[in-house]
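Researcher: Next entry in the queue.
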Amino acid sequence: MLFIKNIKVDPSTAANDGAQSVRVECTVVTALEDTSIQRVELDLSHTLFPCRLEMQPVEGNVLPRTMEGDYSVFLPIRRMMDTGPYRLPIIATDSLGNKQRADASLEVVYRCPEGLSGVGSPNFLEQVGQTARANVSGADRVEFLETGDKAKDTILSLIRSAKRQINLQTYTLGDRGAGRVISDELVKKAGEGVEVNLILNADTQYPTSPLGTLRLKFNRVLAEWTGHAPVKTPEPESPAQSTAESPRPAESRQGMSVVLFSGRKPAGPEEDNKDFTEHWLSRLVASKAGKDETLPSWLSSFQGPGGLPALPLLDFAIHEKILVVDGERAVVGGRNMEEVYFSGWTDLDLYLEGPVVAEVQKGFLRSFREMAEAEPTSRNPSDVFGDFGQAQGPSCLFVQSRPWNREYGTLLSLVQAIQSCKKNFYVSSQYIVLPQGLLLDALLDAAKRGVDVRVFTNSARTAQQVNLGAGYYLSLNYVKTLLDAGVRVWEYKGFPGEEDRQPYLHCKEFLMDGELAAVGSFNLSLRSCYVESENLVFVQDQDLAAARQRRFVSRLETMGREITPERLEQLYAEHKIKIEWARHLELLY
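Model: Structure for this entry, 589 residues:
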């Protein structure tokens, strides 16, 4: 039997600006004869920077034979470590393999580092890339696809022009309107011998298009059964810029291959920490209960996000929207492949050409291969990349998150950008679901530093298009905190008198100091931060960013209504029951 006692953390409160560390100490003893202490570790697997730190014996305070005594370790408080009270497990192991755990306590507070480079500085994207583990690249062409017609025409044109490969990842692919047209074109291209690889999110895809999903999933199998599978010899693959995994040899990759993502067991923690709950979730639970406590036992199944049960709508999900054709051209943004995203809602995508497409392609291929491990019938996609020269356009950074692997690139890169803003930070997001945490801290701090922070989101009228407006009523629970710090929030007015057809705001755009723009799938929401895979493309170009900023301000003036403190009081009075009811839905947004 092991005992861990005399736990100390000095200092007990530290800031997350990257300039501080704390010393964690404890005493470990054993009650069994002929055993010794083999290892003492500080477990950080529940944090944004998961790892285990081995605690070292304190010289002169440990018995040589049994290794009983005092242990310590210096814990660097990483820049952008999530804030709040932490329980830090100390896990001791003896020579018989017995383990014991005890918790140290630490409070992390938010602090923006001093002397940061501005978002327009030449090395800024490199710094963000180091944080997000992403590569800076250039673009030959960047086009904002703002209207639905332009986006649909571009997507269909890309698919129809494909000669070798089409890679598509989306949250939903519908079976009517634009979704059906896109599906038909994919099936057609697969029949012509083009390699088509799809990543779909099962929990949202099956309800959206059950028969269409089966049609896509088994397209290749049916083609082989009926003798209509493509048989022409594949073109030689480009050897350039190969991804980490090599494709299986002598395998036909023509036709269609579909991966349906249905959650993942999270990476770690080890079996000696079975009551594991990630910090973001334990903090949410504590805020609800009004005290620091772990998850109820019925939630601690240790199967899904943060310690939640792996149930539909709570589980990990892929939320990215990516299209890459022939490794040469790409579309990344907010639209899913359904009619409403093109003909009714307000959304935004980026069309890309140039070396940045290679980074998007690498991201897709890595995701597909990882997800296909659970589906043995899925074939390995080809490494198809364009032959790019020196980029002729702006510098870009494509970042992704895979929370089941404890990779939070989109969250960390966005927070880093907010910290580096000097003048303004403008956001379009379909809702605002930000319980206390790193992203909210960064927004509040920026406003208090004097940065002009503005958020454009849906109104009660436009939000009725999705889940009876639950996302809007949930968002109102967080608006007061933003307003109190100086953040300004606008709601999309929509079209009076057309309640059944409103331009729901679905775009995800981030504009910084007129120097940097980012577009992708990331919302100001809990799930975008910690649960769903997301992506962003950062584009560093003063002309483009300034133009988007002017467009954003114009939209606020012509289509928005500011939520002032007085307006918020009015909304609270008008929707009190709905707002209170929506407070219980954070984990769905």
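Model: The longest strand covers residues 20-30.
Researcher: Noted, moving on.
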